[in-house]
Amino acid sequence: MKQTFITDAAAHVDQVVTMKGWVANIRSSGSIAFIQLRDGSGFMQAVIVKSDVDEASWELVNKVTQESSVALMGTISAHPKKEGVFELQVTSIELIHIAEEYPIGNKEHGPDFLMEHRHLWLRSKKQWAILRIRDVVETAINEYLHQEHFIRTDSPIFTPNACEGTTDLFPVPYFDLGEAFLSQSGQLYIEAAIGSVGRCYDFGPVFRAEKSVTKRHLTEFWMMDAEAAFVEHDENVGLQEGLVKHIVASCLKNCTKEFEILERDVTPLQAVVDKPFTRYTYTEAIEKLHELGSDIKFGEDLGNDDEGLLTKDSDVPVFIEKWPKNIKPFYMKIDPEDSAHVLNDDLIGIEGAGEIIGGSQREDNFDLLLERIREDGLDEKEYSWYTDLRKYGSVPHSGFGIGLERMVRWMSGVAHIRECIPFPRTVNRLKP
Amino acid sequence: MKQTFITDAAAHVDQVVTMKGWVANIRSSGSIAFIQLRDGSGFMQAVIVKSDVDEASWELVNKVTQESSVALMGTISAHPKKEGVFELQVTSIELIHIAEEYPIGNKEHGPDFLMEHRHLWLRSKKQWAILRIRDVVETAINEYLHQEHFIRTDSPIFTPNACEGTTDLFPVPYFDLGEAFLSQSGQLYIEAAIGSVGRCYDFGPVFRAEKSVTKRHLTEFWMMDAEAAFVEHDENVGLQEGLVKHIVASCLKNCTKEFEILERDVTPLQAVVDKPFTRYTYTEAIEKLHELGSDIKFGEDLGNDDEGLLTKDSDVPVFIEKWPKNIKPFYMKIDPEDSAHVLNDDLIGIEGAGEIIGGSQREDNFDLLLERIREDGLDEKEYSWYTDLRKYGSVPHSGFGIGLERMVRWMSGVAHIRECIPFPRTVNRLKP
Predict the structure, then answer these.
(1) ipTM, 2 decimals?
(2) Which residue in B149, B160, B430 is closest to A177 by CB distance?
(3) I need a surface site. Which of A13, A116, A217, B198 has the fewest CB within 10 A?
(4) Is residue A344 a part of any domain in this protein?
(5) Residue B432: what pLDDT?
(6) B166 and B295 inside one domain
(7) Are residues B187 and B79 in the same domain?
(8) pTM higher than 0.90 for the full model?
């Protein structure tokens, strides 16, 4: 019989169905047993009354272990008091596979043990919830960008040169062509693609060979880069705000159960959807930080502490825009009103989320771009295809990149970014 | 003034708008000029009547070159005879950037020249159409899988071992952990993830260090792998057919203009949407091939010629299922009715599209799986996390992988796969 998914229970109340899944939990008391069934789409309680099932089914009640796979036949009933809660009144049980003693029990496990068992750890309720939030975030990004006329144009992973200098790259021997480097960002490529499709984005894995071991670093993570022709700094900031609002609204709409499981208080997220984000210039941000007691010097990058300080009393994310030119990459457009600064922005999330987005208007003038490439000591020949874009109908354009795992971490409210990607890769971890 | 996109013209008829884009073409005759404007969302004719515009605007008509970027102010009018065709009656022109002489002219260019100029070649009408079809195919895949209860769970790129043996891998030095290999398929990982989410898919770049130089090979290409718990061979084949029908229907609905530009006759695609696909067993396929004059031997893999022969008189794609076990990988489930064959399928597209999908039911029995791993001479320790999945609530499950570029190639009707990805990477090509 065709499988009915737990998530579709509401549409099958009082119907006879077959549900398939894993035993997350089972308890019995003489003549009645309760299985918490997990089928990937959700969790549901199945009630087995000894007198209502055949002997073989009741025998299984005493046999099935945690994580065993089963098919349960029965009728779906709505909980008399709790809306949206359903139970399966079981008429018969079929065992699919009896699980050996499950290594991830109820006791606490260290992170190394859990990471070593990531292929099983994913089954735990919290990890299930995070995987699903990740899917909702990815879907929301695709939705919003298509609404705003962006189309997806995937950037290459094998690249001949680095987007932002040449540190922290993974080299790969590439046939007779020497070495390729794994992409750190697809930005330069989608800047080329806007000449064709106007607005576009890539969304895929990027790589940093950074030896950092922190709660916010992975060697392989997913990045979405968007780029739009004819969009200048202010509109660029507006698109970023729109995207974050759409992602947060999607999670609030679609992830109620996931948030419950994660015990994530979503109250602070409503303001993110409803209220305009704060905008500080870099200069204002530094002044504000000094008021708040930071000893950051003008011209320095913000540390995690500074980001935390700047957002701790804010109920909305904070843009920091127009940073000093000399701490930002060559492709950012210089502010025509202040040549020491560039038309860029970083978006800092609330609740300790840290930097979520980095964006900028790009330098569209051939001569100025070439000057910046030379100033940064980069090989202008390597970038000739990129500077070409400023020769043939150059246009004002802007873009931004959003780190998927950082966004998922913020939405999920979990501490460590390694839980925000199915199979995390860090300096010390390549398995499973 | 806010940019109005060409694709939204129908909603702005008789309104005064600003359109921004590139000059794809310009011709003038004394007192009237026509610009074919390209803004990424579409193409539109702009009409400039000398007596209707100011002197500065008319001067620009004689100055702008192909690929120059402009803003055109004017009123949108509907074509009196052709439905869905609009024109811009220009009242004023603003030059954004005058293009140097464009290297990609009207004359024929060789593939090397075009590939070297891929960052500009993308702007040509055909390449624009292919990029957009690719976006529609990707979106259709995401849509269909979500409808069918799949969620996206990205697989890692850095892997400690190969999915299908150890040939043709790209090795990458990985900190103190030795070498990582770039993923050839995320299948094993999503098999783990179904234990959490039931049905899932990954969709990202995969890598083959194969020295093949053909019209169908890239070293880096996009693959979607889907995997579903409790799904057996027949249902698996049904999901694949449903997905291909949905992709084709989406292209037919959303890519009318793109097909026109590519001069792609879409008549054959309607049958793909409407009619059930053909299913041959491998044995039937070989017999059929012999009838058709092929000298393929029983037990051999099908070549391109065989695929072509088998589909040349078919108006729908053809599944070839239940292949000999000894030419297929260890993870495919042996047919319980015939232990020499496995429960797998390849889907061959029509119109010379070749193999589009490969799928199979997976071996879910721990002992049988281990035996196959040993038979194939693989290191069972490296796969212990994968065999673990058969210890804790193993379930019948199946999955399949679809090559994005091959699907885009079929839909676009272009000869070479290198045109089906924004920045192709081949044995001889790493730039731009």
Answers:
(1) 0.97
(2) B430
(3) A13
(4) yes
(5) 93
(6) yes
(7) no
(8) yes
